[in-house]
Structures
1.
Amino acid sequence: MTYLAKLGELTLKGSNLHEFERLLVKNTKDCLKDKDVQVTLHAGRMYIDCKEEDFEIVEFTLNHLLGITGWAKTRVCEREIESIKQAVLEEAKIQAEKGCKTFKIEARRSFKQFPLNSYEICCETAGVVEDLMKVDVHNPDCIITVEVRERAFVYCDSQTGCRGLPVGCSGKGLLLLSGGLDSPVAGYRMLRRGMKIECCYFHSYPYTSEEAQKKVEDLAQKLAYYGISTYLNIIPFTDVQMVIKEKAPEAWSTLMLRVCMMKVANMMAHRVHASCIITGESLGQVASQTIENMSVTEHFAEYPLLRPLCGLDKEEIIQTANFIDTYETSILPYEDCCVLFSPKHPILRGKVSDAEEIYKNMQVDELITESYKNRVIKKFNFDGTVEQISE
Ligand code: ATP
Ligand code: MG
């Protein structure tokens, strides 16, 4: 069997096309390393030839691969009408066994020298199916597709792909990943634009539990299925939080926490050569996410601060969280920040000048550097393995 994947947006990208295609093939091979598969590319289609034992992993790969609009498992046959009819018949038998009563043939012929045109291919092949199912061009139970290209392909059940651009074509971003709903979705949004992401999680043990960290690790693994691999940097942040509690005005504590996170994020981004910082903030979602407060956080970021969810509402975010299978993990009860540190009346419209003053008074720079240095790094791979990295 051969899997056929349709390339998405890539086909629009003029001179960069080859680079994108090369990356897509490389990413696919990386996902399927150690497997006995052949990945090839031809005229806007990618083909994966594999053995039956690898069907499952190949389909998992295609369901997570960014840069394809759809895929199908196909029968490949000679570019010759008798072989095509035979393949259509075999496919039709399977569909009839599944309970399909009506069918339609869709034929495409990009190999123009083929003696029959699309309409004629439909007529010829429909003939062999009619003993098994009835034709219904308006509302068929199954559509059997025939594509005559460099080879001939016959398939049913084409699946939609994730679309987007192949990961790695848009540089690297540093994602601030909490255990909540939003940040994993923000990460996925950027992955989908071709950006490789590295993650950073601020952990305030024992105020935030080990379960909270485990949740973030599970989310990082889910992102690794789309990003092929991802690093998670776990930053011990208890000491910094204690200083914020002690020295910042209570109303400012959440905002100051974000500011301190930004300070570490700057160091991290520099260290891993990320060109931007990504958060899951969405305008107006919570008190810390007013435009004024977002400007305060932004002021302390030394890299472009991307907020891909900025204009989305919760429903839209949840939809994507369900799609990427992070929803169930994200809604587990373990909080990523402790109520002990959450002000009753948080400041709604922080001023940058006040923030600078408060930050200076906290004298927390050294502790921040310390927390950055004490980070624990884990690498999550596409195959589900995790590596502890030491620097
Ligand atoms: P999320 O659902 O992603 O947790 P949220 O709606 O809870 O977001 P906030 O708690 O205000 O919003 O956090 C805003 C953003 O700051 C998060 O989306 C995330 O990018 C970052 N962030 C917050 N807490 C942490 C943390 N403990 N570690 C890493 N990043 C964090
Ligand atoms: Mg949160």
2.
Amino acid sequence: MEVIIQPTYAQLVAVSAEIIRDALLKKPHLVLGLATGSTPIGLYEALVRMHKTEGLDFSSVTTFNLDEYVGIRPNHPYSYHTFMKTHFFNAINIPTENCHIPQSTAEAHEEFCENYEEAIVNAGGIDIQVLGIGTDGHIGFNEPSSSLGSRTRIKTLTQSTLEANAPHFGGTVDAVPKMAITMGVGTIMEAKRCLLMASGESKAEAIAHAVEGPITAEVPASALQMHPHTVVIIDEAAASNLKRADYYKQAYANKQKLLSHRE
Ligand code: F6R
């Protein structure tokens, strides 16, 4: 696991956007796994800026979103479909048919989930999976106790996730859909590269458990310790509970030096 600690959210976003830009310049048919939530909004803004100012081309990119609520329509103002269109897809040149976001009713979900997994494989697998993290250590909607080998499936959201998402549904927990379809931890682990972003003190405990704690289904993000190519990009506040923060900073500074010598 590579841990990159940046002073601020703006800087962690800049580093994340550069990783995606470099990958896209090398591989125009990049397959991106995407997340919603507040954390990646700045990343999408940065990529939109790169598209508008540098002509970063998304015309051959394919995307797969991690998750979506069950029981709300795609055009619901707080659906993840609406989120992705608003923050990213409508502002770049990606063909609509290349953008995949889970969508199913609870009754029809099994076949849908199998097809979603198949579509990822048929696209050649995910090159870079963007991830946020819940304060309880969830990734996607894989709540604590999720199998670390789980695949795309329907999940019931925990009370803490319902509460965290209530502000998006008029402030009432009752209005938040109780279930979601999510890629599994096992699905996420098959991405060639994972980019886990976190910002703010509220994420410090989850990040410490995920990065330095034991690998456990109680902290689904801890499975990423077994992933061969995960980059955790966080700000100082989210890094504040890490025991080895100084070492991660030193390692990153050394890597930058090495890269600048090569140029
Ligand atoms: C959403 C998702 C979630 C969020 C997590 C953090 O697609 O995958 O796991 O990444 O709940 O959300 P924010 O960024 O709003 O703190």
